[in-house]
Amino acid sequence: MTKTSHEADVAFIQALAELLREHDLTELQVKREYGEDDSLDVRVSRSAPAPVAAATPMMAAAPVAAPAPTTAATDSPAEDPALHPGAVTSPMVGTAYLQAEPGSEPFVKLGSTVTEGQTLLIVEAMKTMNHIPAPRSGTVKRILVEDGAPVEFGAPLMIIE
């Protein structure tokens, strides 16, 4: 790679970082093609309070939909569900779907027993349906997103214990 190309790449990455800041985004991922066997993959991300703020309304929605776990969910309302050891977080920005298609049964329900690798939900990103597998076996204790809700990278989706 030439010095000019390197400087252009650095300027490109700085421009992406500026876009991230200007539009209050948490992540940008770009692939820049130079030729058949030459490309630059860039992922710029930052920690921001946005995912926590976005998770707060979704967290409040879960106890309304399921009255049984309300007392467990409100024992420590300030606790971030993303920090829970059983949290399943979104690996990407997209739209969460709890079922394969409208009108079908959800992949899991509150209290469902799941096995490692079982599909919990789908996150659609750029018209691609990404199945989110259970990272471990256990019981679904909380569902923190609604069907069709937008999710951020790293946002908590479910709690499995």
From TrEMBL:
Any one GO biological process: fatty acid biosynthetic process
GO terms for cellular component: acetyl-CoA carboxylase complex
GO molecular function: acetyl-CoA carboxylase activity
NCBIfam families named among the record's database cross-references: BCCP (TIGR00531)
Task of the protein: This protein is a component of the acetyl coenzyme A carboxylase complex; first, biotin carboxylase catalyzes the carboxylation of the carrier protein and then the transcarboxylase transfers the carboxyl group to form malonyl-CoA.
PANTHER family for this protein: OXALOACETATE DECARBOXYLASE ALPHA CHAIN
Protein name as annotated: Biotin carboxyl carrier protein of acetyl-CoA carboxylase
